[in-house]
Structure formats: C-alpha cells, structure tokens
C-alpha cells in the first residue's frame, strides 16, 4: 500500500469517486457569473475547487474510454469527451497518455491495532499517507473491542482516527459473546452505522470464538440485517501445530506457516460456510490465502449460497519461499495469518479473482 502502482503509463488517481450521472447545471462547465451565458466552458472557482482532467483514458468498472473529467467541490460532475474550458480559473490537468481512475477502497485494514503485545506499524496518519500515495482513497478498518466492550472499542478507534487524512469506515470485531455484546451490536447498527461484524475462528486464548458463539453471532447478524465476516482458520488445530513446531525446535518464521497449513484454513472456511447456510445469512470470508479455502467458497457459490471471498495482494503475488530466508529480519516481514502459501496457491487465487469466485481485494495490514 505504501508504493504507487507503476504500469505502462502513469496513473492519475481521483480522490473523488462519486460521479453525478445527471447534473445539467455543470454538464458543460458553464462559466460562472460571466456575460456569455451557459455556452462557455468551466469557469470561476479560482480557489481550486474546480478541476478539469483532460485527454486521459478514463477507467471505470464497466469500461475504459477517452474522456475528460470535471470535478467541482470534490465531486465528479461530468465525464465526457472534449469538455471546454471557459476561463483561466479552472485548474486543468493534462492527462494525455495517462489513465484516469477512481480512488481505490481497501475493505480490510488494521491501523494502530493492539494485538498480543504488538501494535501495527501504521496509524491513521501514516497509513493514510501511504494509501493516498498508492491511489487508495478510502478504507474500512476493524474496531477491536476493549475487554469485549464494543462501545469502548469504538470510542478508542474514533480517537485513533482523529489524525486521519482520508475517508474511512469501520467494521466491528466480536471477541466474546454475552447478552451485552448482543445488545451493543444492535446499537452499532442502528446508531453508528456499523453493519459488518468479524468473528475470529483463530487466535485461541485471545480473539477466538467457539462454534456455539459463532452460531449465536451469525443469528444476531441475520436479525440485524448485518454482514457476518470470519477469519477462517481452525484455532484449536493451529494451537496444536504451534506446539508441534516448538517441540521440534522450529521457532523461526518458517514455523509459522508450518503450524497452520492450508488444510486448516480450508476446514474452517467450510465450517463457517455451513453454519452460515444453517442460519441462512450471508458470509464474508476475509483474507483467503489458499486454494483449500477458495474451493470451499467456489462450491458454496455454485450451490447458490451468498458467500464473499476476499483475497489479499500478498496471497496473490507472493509464495512462502520468503519465510525460509536465512535472514530473520527479512523472513519475519512475510509473517501473517493465514500465512502466505507455497507456489501455486497464488496463481489459483488470481484465477479465482479474475473469474469472480473471489470478489474483493485488500492490501491488508501494516505491522
């Protein structure tokens, strides 16, 4: 997320992504207050509130075309070829030979997250600066409750986000279950606009919820019309795998991947999908890192179940060879959960993303 994408031609990235499809007052960027009426070009706004990006290749989800983009007060109000300029008060950016794209939205981040004695390396300022440099203009972070309390967690994250430099939203993690958590989930949806809740099937002894608690959480999400999300790894088996590695004296970064193989991600993904089917509620599986998990999602989608699978860039382009680097400082940079898999998984995940089996793409966290 910290490095701008470099492709054949320079990307011009728009911070404003909402396109007003019908905005007749600005469709031709008429000069404001001039004597020539509405037949001129873009006018007024010498304070930089009006911007015209000319001559680029405009790329949206549905097509790419040669077009100009006119922005006023941070909102895209016209996208069409050859928008005229009426005076010198509009900032004109020449995008000839460049792509013009909406800013990206990262649906899964962990900024300034406190976890098991560590804190993620980027906060809401440095993370935002890196994101903006790479063309991401909005993200959704995960609020971690304070001792299971959702309201306290939200207040903590609001405070962390006071130094933000771009748009953001929140998911909410659920790390324990009782009547108070159930009540607070309703408050989050109805009063704070948070309508997605993440359940950890991993991290035994820390964030992990058991199947009975996950089932209750899925039922609550259904009743609220909220989206249930899961980190899908078998936490009990991972704990066993970790102990095996310790017993064998394998304590380097490579032991992390060996302790939580793809089969444990696939098993947990399958279990979560089946529980969601039992409750009849949609499911979002975060950071899909293996063919094992991807195939469970593909099977569920073929059967008509509402399941969203989210890959991450590291899982799409890297393999686990980095974890075996003899230099600990290098290898440790590639530790994440679920881990980066051996070569072959990445290509399969790329194909799944291309074909629509997987539907989101996240830069994920910065540790």
From TrEMBL:
Post-translational modification: Carbamylation allows a single lysine to coordinate two divalent metal cations.
Entry cofactors: Zn(2+)
Protein origin, superkingdom: Eukaryota
Enzyme class, UniProt record, top EC level: hydrolase
Catalytically driven reaction(s): 5,6-dihydrouracil + H2O = 3-(carbamoylamino)propanoate + H(+)
Gene Ontology molecular function: any one: dihydropyrimidinase activity
GO cellular component: cytosol
Pfam families for the chain: Amidohydro_1
Positions where N6-carboxylysine occurs in the chain: 198
Domain Amidohydrolase-related: from-to ranges: 99-240
Keyword annotations: Hydrolase, Metal-binding, Signal
Regions annotated as coiled coil: none
Region forming the signal peptide: 1-22
EC numbers on record: 3.5.2.2
Family to which the UniProt record says this protein belongs: Belongs to the metallo-dependent hydrolases superfamily. Hydantoinase/dihydropyrimidinase family.
Record-given protein name: dihydropyrimidinase
Gene from which this protein is expressed: LOC125545106
């Amino acid at each position: 997320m910290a490095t701008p994408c470099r492709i054949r031609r320079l990307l011009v990235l728009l911070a404003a992504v909402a396109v007003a499809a019908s905005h007749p007052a600005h469709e031709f960027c008429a000069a404001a207050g001039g004597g020539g009426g509405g037949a001129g070009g873009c006018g007024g706004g010498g304070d930089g509130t009006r911007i015209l990006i000319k001559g680029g290749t405009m790329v949206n989800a549905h097509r790419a075309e040669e077009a100009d983009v006119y922005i006023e007060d941070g909102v895209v109000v016209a996208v069409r070829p050859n928008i005229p300029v009426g005076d010198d008060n509009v900032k004109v950016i020449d995008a000839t030979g460049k792509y013009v794209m909406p800013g990206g939205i990262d649906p899964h981040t962990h900024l300034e997250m406190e976890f098991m004695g560590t804190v993620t390396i980027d906060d809401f300022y440095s993370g935002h600066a890196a994101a903006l440099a790479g063309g991401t203009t909005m993200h959704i972070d995960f609020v971690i409750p304070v001792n299971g309390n959702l309201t306290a967690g939200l207040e903590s994250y609001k405070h962390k986000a006071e130094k933000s430099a771009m748009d953001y939203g929140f998911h909410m993690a659920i790390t324990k279950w009782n009547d108070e958590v159930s009540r607070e989930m309703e408050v989050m949806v109805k009063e704070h606009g948070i309508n997605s809740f993440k359940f950890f099937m991993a991290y035994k002894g820390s964030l992990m919820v058991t199947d009975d608690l996950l089932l209750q959480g899925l039922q609550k999400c259904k009743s609220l019309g909220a989206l249930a999300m899961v980190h899908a790894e078998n936490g009990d088996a991972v704990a066993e795998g970790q102990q095996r590695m310790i017993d064998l004296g394998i304590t380097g970064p490579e032991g992390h991947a060996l302790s939580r193989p793809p089969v444990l991600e696939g098993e947990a993904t399958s279990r979560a999908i089946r529980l969601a089917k039992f409750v009849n509620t949609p499911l979002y599986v975060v950071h899909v890192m293996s063919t094992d998990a991807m195939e469970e999602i593909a099977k569920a989608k073929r059967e008509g179940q509402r399941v969203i699978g989210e890959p991450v860039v590291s899982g799409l382009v890297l393999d686990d060879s980095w974890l075996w680097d003899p230099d600990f400082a290098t290898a440790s940079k590639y530790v994440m959960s679920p881990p980066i898999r051996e070569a072959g998984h990445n290509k399969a995940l790329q194909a799944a993303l291309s074909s629509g089996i997987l539907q989101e793409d996240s830069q994920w966290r910065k540790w």
